[in-house]
Amino acid sequence: MNYFQISNLSDAQLIAFLRDPRTITILLVLSIWALIWKGIALWKASKNGSKPWFIALLILNTLGILEIIYIFYFSKKKEQNQVTQQ
């Protein structure tokens, strides 16, 4: 079964696709990946006192993309500003 053509599946084929161990494994790995990045990003946002980022990271689900951008770009920017002000 081609994983990129699920829109043309019948109900029985879709159920079989969702019960496939490979599909379950992929969904489980993606969920764990997103949860780890979301946890780290939320922790950094709360530590930096950034309510708008915390709310955005909490609500939006981007499979870790927004979280990674926040962790490696925006949170470092905030930490550098705090260090220079002290």
Question: Overview of this structure, please?
Answer:
- The chain is mainly α and 86 residues long.
- The protein has a domain at 33-86.
- It is built from four helices and no strands.
- Helix 2 (21-47) runs antiparallel to helix 3 (51-59) and helix 2 packs parallel to helix 4.
- The longest helix is centred in the middle third of the chain and has 27 residues, at 21-47.
- The protein is elongated, with a radius of gyration of 18 Å.
- The N and C termini lie far apart (59 Å).
- 10% of the residues are buried.
- The mean pLDDT is 84.
Write the layout of secondary structure elements.
Layout: H1 11-19, H2 21-47, H3 51-59, H4 65-85
Residue share in helices? Answer: over 70%
Low-confidence stretches: none
H-E string: HHHH
SS element count, helices: 4
Q: Major beta sheet, specifics?
A: none
Overall average pLDDT: 84
Radius of gyration: 18 Å
Class by SSE composition: mainly alpha
Distance from N terminus to C terminus (CA atoms, Å) equals 59 Å
Could you tell me the number of beta strands?
0
Strand percent estimate: under 5%
Could you say which overall geometry the principal axes of the C-alpha atoms support? elongated
Keywords:
single chain, about 90 residues, mainly alpha
Condensed summary:
With 86 residues, this protein is mainly α. It has a domain at 33-86.
